[in-house]
Design brief:
The complex is a heterodimer of chains A (288) and B (263).
Chain A (H helix, E strand, L loop, with lengths): L2 H5 L5 H4 L3 H9 L5 H5 L2 H18 L11 H14 L1 H33 L1 H15 L7 H8 L3 H25 L3 H9 L4 H36 L7 H10 L3 H29 L11
Helix pairs in contact in A: 6-14, 7-8, 7-10, 7-12, 7-13, 9-10, 10-12, 11-12, 12-14, 13-14
Chain B lengths: L7 H5 L20 E10 L2 E11 L4 E6 L5 H8 L7 E5 L4 E4 L11 H6 L7 H11 L15 H13 L5 E5 L7 H18 L2 E5 L3 H7 L2 E6 L2 E7 L11 H13 L4 H4 L1
Parallel strand pairs in B: 3-7, 3-8, 5-6, 6-7
Antiparallel strand pairs in B: 1-2, 1-4, 8-9
Helix pairs in contact in B: 4-5
The chains are: A mainly alpha (288), B alpha/beta (263).
Amino acid sequence: MSEQVLNVAPPGAWRRGSTGIGAWLRRQEVSAPRLRGLGLRRFATPLGILILWQAASSSGVLPARAVPPPLAVVAAARDLLLSGALIHHLSVSLLRVAAGLAIAIAAGASLALAAGLSRLGEDLIDPPLQMARTLPFLALVPLFILWFGIGETPKVALVALGATFPIYLNLFAGIRGADPKLVEVAATLGLSRAGLIRHVVLPAALPHFLTGLRYAIGIAWLSLVVGEQINADSGIGYLMMDARDFLRTDIIMVGLAVYALLGLASDQAVRALERKALAWRPAARVGR
Amino acid sequence: MAAGRPGRALTMDGSWDAGAARIGPVAQPAPDTKVRGLVRRFGPTAVLDGLDIDIPAGRFVALLGRSGSGKTTLLRTLAGLDTAEQGEVILPPKRAVVFQEPRLMPWKRVWENVALGLPDHDARDRAELALREVELAHRMDAWPLTLSGGEAQRAGLARALVRDPDLLLLDEPFAALDALTRLRMQALVTALWKRHGMAALLVTHDVDEALLLADHAVVLQRGQIGLQLPIDLPRPRRHGTPAFAVLRGELLGSLGLSAEEAA
């Protein structure tokens, strides 16, 4: 039911393995390791695109009204920073995601524990959640506005709803996927049911929970983008919609860049958490 | 660490079968393990079909048999992992199992694996003593996935030893090891068994292993005892002595092989 959620490798995972096409390609590079060793080569293409983009804008090939030149985007970012507007909208957005994620983690983890640790819980909880997760939850926006108005509540609720599912699905699968052989060992060691859950089931499920958390964070930012473009008066999404009204494509680009950086930073944060919480895994497998 | 531990039963009770735990500073002899009329079916086939077997206290019994002869089912029944349909089983209070795979919790350090299920107050010290006995004390803070196969299996052995079992159940514990490591593990298990004096049941496919380690070899056939063979060889035992060869031929014969085929 949720296997497909688990089997999707997070981006970049293939580079870490010691087998497969990634490792083969790496071995082919032994003869030309200079740029690779400095880690600079991966920046070459993005940098080239930026230079081409700036050149196209400066020469008039790209109309500034449709696509602002990179330097104009940087200037807009600087102005927004200096005026304090960027920090204000950013903190509003961060708070919304943090609140929504906190609710999603609490709800998703509670539901997964209840469903994962008892048959009754599974029968009561799993069917409605499996049905609900097939619903494109962003389609609930009109309903949420009718229910919760246009304040903070519908935005946080949208983030929370979307992020709950990956937490629930992955943690539930992780709990049910605990190795039966280790469960047997726990029985021969005389562990109680509580001891079994604490020492075997939950640690076994932790990697799955963290995978779920990474997906949840991705969905949280996506939900926020949608939530903030409807009836918002603050937040990064509002900043972008407001800029649209004044044809300020440079500010829209700043908003996009901020979203990208936020997504990247939160993903890195979970990776750091994984490295710490899953220190028992051999280095090659961390991040898988 | 073998230095006799009077009163060891006191610290161990409750971990498995509190009701039957021995009490008092002087350890009484543990009861023999007795199995009478054990029947276990998987679908229409009876894997154990009215089996009777004894494992006297302090004796080392090797259990041989072809695949599907019920060896592992018997061990799992004695370990409390499988429930028979009929029959009677009398067990000593403290049992411990070593499986074919080490089955360590990868998220717990080696000593935490050994100490799992022990009362907290001196768990680390006791784990360290047990790890020292299997010559793994230097790895006690390591993560299990960083251990070699032999090291991991020794950790599994320490996890069983630390419980001070009256009956040690060994489910093909050396089968997945390379030949050299297997020989060292066999010597280690023999030494530990002598020092602690617990009863041991070794499930194995390996006739030579049974002859090197056990006091008795029992061959299971279709869920019953096909052959019961006392092994009266002096220890330490060596391959290739004439007496060894005679017993080997007898065991192989009961498994349906000639010594030439097995050579």
